[in-house]
Amino acid sequence: QVQLVESGGGLVQAGGSLKLSCAASGSIFSINVMGWYRQAPGNQRELVATITSGGSTNYADSVKGRFTISRNNAKSTVYLQMNSLKPEDTAVYYCNADRITTRQGFLTDFWGQGTQVTVSS
Known about the structure:
The chain is mainly β. It contains no helices and twelve strands. The chain has strands at 3-7, 10-13, 18-25, 28-39, 46-52, 57-59, 67-72, 77-82, 91-102, 106-107, 110-111, 115-120. Strands 2, 4, 5, 6, 9, 10, 11 and 12 form an eight-stranded mixed sheet that branches. A four-stranded antiparallel sheet has the order 1-3-8-7, with no helix packed on it. The model has no long low-confidence stretch (mean pLDDT 96).
C-alpha cells in the first residue's frame, strides 16, 4: 500500500532553480534507497540522483555540482534541489523508492507518477 507523491515541477528559465519533493506514504518502517530519475521525449529513463537511508549519495555526471538530493527519513520524503537549470534538464522527473520495509513485508522498486520540469532558454 505504498504510494509516492511528487510535487515541485514547473516551468523555469535557464539558470533558475526548482525543488522537487516526493513523500512516501503507507505503513513504512524504512526505505533503503530513494532517488530521482528523468525521461525526456524520445529518450530512455535515466538516473539523476540517489540517496541511501544513511545519507550516501550518487549523482549523474550531468547534474553534479548543480543538483542536491536529500531526505528526511522520519517523513519518508526525498528532495531534489535543482540549481543552474539548463534546457537539457527538461524532462519528466520520477521519484523512486527501493528496498522498502513495511508492516506487510519487504517491497522493491516503487515509482511516483512523475512531475514535469521544463527549462526554457
